[in-house]
Specification:
The protein starts with a helix and ends with a helix. The chain has one domain. The protein is mainly α. This is DUF3624 domain-containing protein.
Length: 88
């Protein structure tokens, strides 16, 4: 999952929230993962395959949440703060 933004930056926190391609891939993985779990493992939630898929889905959703939090909350606040400093 590399893109221009991911290849330029070398630190995780500098990459997160800036890559639309990564966010799209995580969204797709999250949706496909939950749909697969629902249809394949809903009746056997304690099987090892079900638990592994649940853990993968939670990981995809957690990373997607971090991307969206940075994109919609943290980065806009930083931009506003930076704009205030430059106007002084």
């Amino acid at each position: 999952m590399t893109c221009n933004n991911c290849e330029k930056q070398n630190w995780f926190w500098k990459k997160i929230g800036k890559c639309q391609r990564c966010m799209n891939q995580l969204t797709l993985l999250s949706v496909v993962g939950w749909v697969a779990w629902w249809f394949l493992f809903q009746e056997r939630p304690k099987s090892i395959e079900s638990i592994a898929l649940l853990m993968a889905n939670v990981t995809f959703n957690g990373l997607l949440f971090l991307h969206l939090w940075m994109f919609f909350v943290v980065l806009p606040l930083r931009r506003r703060k930076h704009l205030r400093r430059t106007k002084r």
